[in-house]
UniProtKB/TrEMBL annotation:
Pathway: Amine and polyamine biosynthesis; betaine biosynthesis via choline pathway; betaine from betaine aldehyde: step 1/1. GO terms for biological process: glycine betaine biosynthetic process from choline. K(+) 1 binds at V28, D94. Involved in the biosynthesis of the osmoprotectant glycine betaine. Catalyzes the irreversible oxidation of betaine aldehyde to the corresponding acid. It comes from Halocynthiibacter halioticoli. Dimer of dimers. K(+) 2 binds at L244, K455, G458. This is Betaine aldehyde dehydrogenase. Belongs to the aldehyde dehydrogenase family. Residues 18-477 form the Aldehyde dehydrogenase domain. It comes from the Bacteria. Keywords: Metal-binding, NAD, NADP, Oxidation, Oxidoreductase, Potassium.
């Protein structure tokens, strides 16, 4: 059933384009294991065409007034909203995530980004610096051609979160989706053209890591923005550094969530469940180390077990389903391996841990939402990013102890705290070594708020006004008003 077959693998210079010389790969629907589309990885000639067209389009695009660029982005946002159902179904086919989620979280957040950056870019002005008689002024200029490289967990959102600030600032983009989820970004490319963007402004080239690597090292590229794992981030950062290219790195995490004894326990459980099971656990910012004060741990675990067992795992296209499958067979094997390691290292399985049978979807990559208790800091599941619906619950006694343990990781993407003590909430948020923190909620990432990681979890920020700094550069112009004072 290649029902979702696009016209061709790549979208370059405003049109679909194919080169069958590229390595063939399949797009698999995670709920059934069926091949739903076939692709070819980009060859050097496709990469070349994409970069050349991006260079051409960028010059034309940067010459527009910001308000004109913004209008195109906002029109694209409107088209995305109009087609939310169609795009959400495609997101579900690409990733396996439940339609109940994709209808509200993916295309819509992509549209938010385009609307936001399309709106604020005309307010992005330089400054005037008085210098006595002389003065200087600054101009914010685009970087040029940006490369976006995406992970597979949010293919629509990642494409839009990268394209929106990049294009708003006057750059062009060549985007490489993960080869696991090649479908969604192509639709976004179509929509940009429909909204009036010049051909070549947003190109999509498919492929594996080698295509991403070829893009990251090409002299025509001025910036690389990656969403991916820490090991890939290190490689891409190093490759970009060779050419002194700008980078944004949105990488992985092993984020802590602290639940104090005075927390609203039902809200804290909701936060922990959203921060571990949403998108079948495949969210970079997930709070996968849930530290619960020992005085409320048993009560927390008992309610968590009941509520977790009420989660409906099943056909992701059924809107009653809470949890779809994992994205791929490889991811299912990886998550299953971590569950086995947790058991062998002595963690207590509270619930889940197995692969539920879903009628009509026997070959899907399903896994039950899983909770482990009695997890200790040295266990593998408390140290490594699993990227599946596997929650590790750890006990603690004091705030200082919890914070020390929460921060004892190379990652620094996110962190959360549930408490009713207002001073403690802010004290803990300040002490977290993480780029994105939540108090009495978890995993909300609206476009107005900067998002990104510290430590090994990333470089730079997406979303908010902060993202403009990562897609533009400042030119200073000194204006001499008098005679040149020269000793020669
Ligand atoms: P990977 O790091 O495996 O891949 C990310 C992207 O990089 C893919 O498109 C991949 O291609 C490409 N790639 C791989 N090697 C290279 C290379 N040498 N040069 C250039 N590009 C390369 O991540 P996953 O796709 O497995 O995604 C999961 C990871 O993403 C998790 O660690 C997660 O935490 C992180 N993530 C971070 C987010 C954030 O905002 N901080 C948000 C979402 C996810 P391909 O896979 O097609 O071969």
């Amino acid at each position: 059933m290649t029902l979702f077959q696009p016209k061709a693998s790549h979208f370059v210079d405003g049109a679909y384009i194919e080169d069958t010389a590229g390595t063939a790969f399949d797009c698999v629907y995670p709920a059934t294991g069926e091949v739903i589309a076939k692709f070819h990885s980009a060859t050097p000639s496709i990469i070349d065409a994409a970069l050349n067209s991006a260079q051409r389009a960028q010059k034309q695009w940067a010459a527009l007034m910001p308000v004109e660029r913004g209008r195109v982005l906002r029109r694209a946002a409107d088209f995305i909203r109009d087609r939310n159902r169609e795009l959400s179904e495609l997101e579900t086919m690409d990733t396996g995530k439940a339609l109940q989620e994709t209808l509200v979280a993916d295309a819509t957040s992509g549209a938010d980004a385009l609307e936001y950056f399309g709106g604020i870019v005309s307010g992005m002005t330089g400054e005037t610096v008085p210098l006595g008689e002389d003065f200087a002024y600054t101009i914010r200029e685009p970087l040029g051609v940006c490369v976006g490289i995406g992970a597979w967990n949010y293919p629509t959102q990642i494409a839009c979160w990268k394209a929106a600030p990049a294009l708003a600032c006057g750059n062009a983009m060549v985007f490489k989706p993960s080869e696991t989820t090649p479908l969604c970004a192509l639709k976004i490319a179509e929509i940009f053209i429909e909204a009036g963007a010049p051909a070549g402004l947003f190109n999509v080239v498919q492929g594996l890591g080698d295509v991403g690597a070829a893009l990251s090292t090409d002299p025509r590229v001025d910036k690389v923005s990656l969403t991916g794992s820490v090991p890939t981030g290190r490689k891409v950062y190093a490759a970009a550094a060779e050419g002194l290219r700008h980078v944004t790195m949105e990488l992985g995490g092993k984020s802590p969530l602290l639940v104090f004894e005075d927390a609203d326990i039902e809200d804290a459980i909701s936060g922990a469940m959203l921060g571990n099971f949403y998108s079948t656990g495949q969210v970079c910012s997930n709070g996968t180390r849930v530290f619960v004060h020992n005085s409320i741990k048993e009560q927390f675990l008992s309610r968590l077990k009941t509520r977790t067992e009420a989660i409906r795992v099943g056909d992701p296209l059924n809107e009653d389903t809470h949890l779809g499958p994992l994205v791929s067979k490889a991811q299912l094997e990886k998550v299953t391996r971590y569950i086995e390691i947790a058991k062998s290292e002595g963690a207590t399985l509270v619930t889940g841990g197995d692969a539920p049978r879903v009628n009509g979807h026997e070959a899907g990559f399903f896994i039950a939402p899983t909770v482990f208790a009695d997890v200790t800091d040295d266990m593998t599941i408390a140290r490594e990013e699993i990227f599946g619906p596997v929650m590790a619950v750890l006990g603690f006694d004091t705030e200082v102890e919890a914070l020390t343990r929460a921060n004892a990781t190379e990652f620094g993407l996110s962190a959360g705290v549930f408490t009713k003590d207002i001073s403690r909430a802010h004290r803990v948020a300040k002490a977290f070594e993480a780029g994105t923190c939540w108090i009495n909620t978890y995993n909300l990432a609206p476009v107005e708020v900067p998002f990104g990681g510290s430590k090994q979890s990333g470089v730079g920020r997406e979303n908010s006004k902060a993202a403009l700094d990562y897609y533009s550069q400042i030119k200073s112009v000194y204006v001499g008003m008098g005679r040149v004072d020269s000793p020669y």
